[in-house]
Amino acid sequence: MDKTINQKAWFLVLPVFLVVAFSAVLPLMTVVNYSMQDTFGNNQFFWNGVGWFKELLDPSTDLGGRFLASLGRNLFFSAVILAIEVPLGIVVALSMPREGWSVAACLVILALPLLIPWNVVGTIWQIFGRPDIGLLGYVLNHLGFNYNYVANDVDAWVTVIVMDVWHWTSLVALLCYAGLKSIPDAYYQAAQIDGASRWAVFKAIQLPKMNRVLLIAVLLRFMDSFMIYTEPFVVTGGGPGNSTTFVSIELVKIALGQFDLGKAAALSLAYNLIILIVCWVFYTVMTNAGSERPVKEGAA
Amino acid sequence: MARIDLVDLAQSYNGNDAPLESFALKPVTMTWRQGGAYALLGPSGCGKTTLLNLISGIVTPSRGQILFDGRDITPLSTQKRNIAQVFQFPVIYDTMTVGENLAFPLKNRGIAKAEVNARVKQIADLLDLTPYLNRKATRLTADAKQKISLGRGLVRSDVAAVLFDEPLTVIDPELKWQLRSKLKALHRELDLTMIYVTHDQTEALTFADTVVVMHDGRVVQSGTPAELFDKPAHTFVGYFIGSPGMNIVPAEVSGHEARIDGHVIGLHRNYGVLPAGKKIEIGVRPEFVDVAAPASGLLSATIERIDDLGRIQFARVRVGNTKLAARVPPGFSVSGDTAGLIFNPAYVHVYADSHLVEGVA
User: Fold this and answer.
1) pLDDT 10s digits, A93-143
2) Cβ(A90)–Cβ(A172) under 8 Å?
3) Which residues of B touch A294 (CB under 8 A)?
4) CA of A195: which chain B residue's CA is closest?
5) Residue of A182, A192, A193 to mutate, interface with B, max B Cβ within 10 Å
6) Residue A12 covered by a domain
7) Per the domain annotation, does A150 fall within a domain?
8) Is the Cβ–Cβ distance between A289 and A211 less than 8 Å?
């Protein structure tokens, strides 16, 4: 049978082509274009080849130094908040009630921080931590701790980390809770019959069954914390000094503060690439974990 | 190894003060012999899983006691009872290998490694799981997983009874037979008390030497498959067991006679005068009613259709408003749509308010 040839379908795809072109492809290509050039304003551009990328990877230059230092801070930040939020989220999910009205109450309370806009979270903690008028800062200082996130690196870090934990542990907890709820009762009953201790139940049933949601939680939290901008910007502004300046903050400084479009473009491409790679690794891990096929008996 | 006694055991999910009629399990007193193969048979929601969970300790009874060899174990937790249970859906520990799965209950009880290995090996041999011992358990088929769940129960040497909660639900039909005969073989070999919950009468009748039929939270009869078939103690048993189920026909009974629509059927036993005000019915299995050519002296019936089961044919007939099934004797060919019914008096039972009435010989 001859295939009917009808090219009209192209018209149906065209709107998507246009939307994607203008919203993604063209801006991205503009950035690629910028990353190869230097500008001194007035819309005058000079070709620079891969110069910015070379600088980016060379810690002795200004651009490379700032990029690598902020990247290190970013990775450290992500590692710390993952190390806190994932176990804490699991503990919260495990201690949540399984039925009754208290379930709804817990879910609402957990969802609250997630509903607050980033800059408001920043503002809340910025005021909360102030030694003069903030509840936390005032109390800590009157208890004899010399706490001042504006002046002390460690205090600034602690504030930013605690703020992120406060804001996002709920997400991990909610995901874990969903994972826990999907475990059939028979597993717990079987474990009871097998004489499993609380810890053995956690290790043999709950943790493996939460596997998937935990992967999603880690992925989401890594991405979010790696791209964090608003909250530390509002609370510490990247300071004191550069101690809480993350890659995104550095990027905005270069692009909008110094108007170094070429450097900023190169940096944002590198930034994007890192996120893409991490995404890909996670995606591969997750799909591989899901592709387990049962092996027929006797096939071995 | 133990005899299990249930004393006045009852369970209500709506609190102990709820009316008895709402109990998921109405008070039951019965004994499970050491080494018996039992089937708990009944439709969904009849309380059979509740009874099973009470024995294993997953559910604490509202009333009554459970005795293992005369010792009251009602307050003991599941861990402390020597019970193994296999669930409807195979429960396996995903991260462990088959061997680790089997060893899990022993490890939890702090048993020495050498003994654990020996037991695991023995049970794996018994269940034909030896080639898979080092495989991850998640990657196996449903029937292999179900064998692992069973193995985790059997691996404990102190186990008093193995409870099965519809364990073959998710197994392919062809493998069901294999697995069921495996269970039978294990039962003979290990001398364990096995209680098998199912709503499938074939499964129950082929597995068990004693079948306990439950209906609406009550045990209505317990006996050998033959007893259940020949002499159902309750119309529900007659109807539920056998395919097609027993014919239940409203009748008037006195002495040696039952009357259906004025037609007299002879009975094997003497029933005297039955108490008034009760609903009197006679029950007879289709296998013991033969279709014959219409004749005077035979109860006449209208034939609605013939079900050919291959080895045997059943005629679906109607007497007045009552539908019956009757055997078409070999060599008899149905002509026309009326027929006479011949009852075998030895197998006609009389029921008052659904319960069997014992006649006098």
Assistant:
1) 999 988 888 999 999 999 999 999 988 999 999 899 888 888 988 899 889
2) yes
3) 139-142
4) B79
5) A193
6) no
7) yes
8) yes
